[in-house]
């Protein structure tokens, strides 16, 4: 089955760090650009970052630049999002997604930044 | 950044109705526009890419159109499972941006 499964979410204090993972199965990860999208509680979708097929091109929304790092390990069929200096407004469900024009979504993982 | 707006922000419709949602980009994006459907508590579902091409498995009652700055998503005959929030997204230039969403609920 073609799917994406996120993990690593949880409760973290402001200023803390968290690393999200996304496990891909049923397809070859190295064939696709990959994307992270987030959704704050009760709000709309926000594009966060994407990475090209071999990992040497990365793009970010301004609000996370310098704090978040997207990476991938194609051999492990995994996508990552390292989140540092977390703020309350980073609280959201984070979705892993396949493609530039996203065609496949994970189920999401909730990140809560609170003291 | 390219701003994306949607109208209306919400609409009430009945099963069988024809529904059209519009999306406008603040500058030309050619046809680099996608549409997504999201139900409460669920991940989004991809409907359309390149403004008018249906993703695999999407029912033919959905259609997308437009180019440049103005786009639309039409549901030709609304079904019970179509009540949801719909988002458009431009992917012409970074950062890719989503519209604020259109809630389609039951009249």
Question: Your description of this structure?
Answer:
Chain A is an all-beta fold and 115 residues long. Chain A has no helices and 11 strands. In chain A, the strands form 2 sheets. In chain A, strands 2, 4, 5, 6, 9, 10 and 11 form a 7-stranded mixed sheet that branches. In chain A, strands 1-3-8-7 form a 4-stranded antiparallel sheet, with no helix packed on it. In chain A, strand 4 and strand 5 form a beta hairpin. Chain A is globular and about 40 Å long. The model of chain A has no long low-confidence stretch (mean pLDDT 98). Chain B has 107 residues and is mainly beta. Chain B contains no helices and 11 strands. In chain B, the strands form 2 sheets. In chain B, strands 2, 4, 5, 6, 9, 10 and 11 form a 7-stranded mixed sheet that branches. In chain B, strands 1-3-8-7 form a 4-stranded antiparallel sheet, with no helix packed on it. The radius of gyration of chain B is 13 Å and the shape is globular. Chain B starts with a strand and ends with a strand. At the A-B interface, strand 5 and strand 10 of A face strand 4, strand 5 and strand 10 of B.
